[in-house]
Amino acid sequence: MRTIELNGVLIITILLVIFASHNLLAQQFNLNNSKSTMSIFGTSSLHDWEEVIEEQSGSIQLSTEGEMAIVNLNVSVVAESIKSDKPAMDKNTYKALKTDTYKSITFKMTDFKNMTDLGNSEYQVTVSGKLSISGVTKIVDLTFKMKTTTNAVTLEGEKSLNMKDYGIEPPKALFGTITTGEKVTIKFKSILTN
């Protein structure tokens, strides 16, 4: 009976050590919305424009076993938190994005492609993942710079997209006299902390 108890304690101890070591080798950081920035830049027949994303969330999981690698990365944006300084433009944006039905824009990594060490805990990273906008999901590559510290990860980069690839008709204003360009560029600086 004593041997069975000791074996049980030994098995539990081994499992705890394995679980603890896994946590040490894979560390998760969560996106800090108040410290992160994300903006959308575009063109129109009148002037260039910018919209700011006010609500985003997400996480990154890094593996430090051997070479640094990203195990998991996901970001979610509240579609109606996309704001300009013009309420009419915001209304057109939400209509184009069909925010009545599709509340979020999401990116979920599916493939960690490569990482180049730039020195000073900075890396050039390329991942591939599912980008879902207005109910349309496409696989896209995303390249960005990543800087790591003990308590935080900073991701900084940009991605150009064609709205029509996601079934989005570029918004128009003033009865169609002002037209928006099909292409937009999303620029981000995401701060993730543990």
TrEMBL record:
SUPFAM superfamilies: YceI-like
Xref: InterPro entries: Lipid/polyisoprenoid-bd_YceI, TTHA0802/YceI-like_sf
Signal peptide start and end residues: none
Database matches in Pfam families: YceI
Lipid/polyisoprenoid-binding YceI-like domain ranges (all copies): 28-193
SMART domains according to UniProt: YceI
Species this protein is from: Hanstruepera neustonica
The protein, known as: YceI family protein
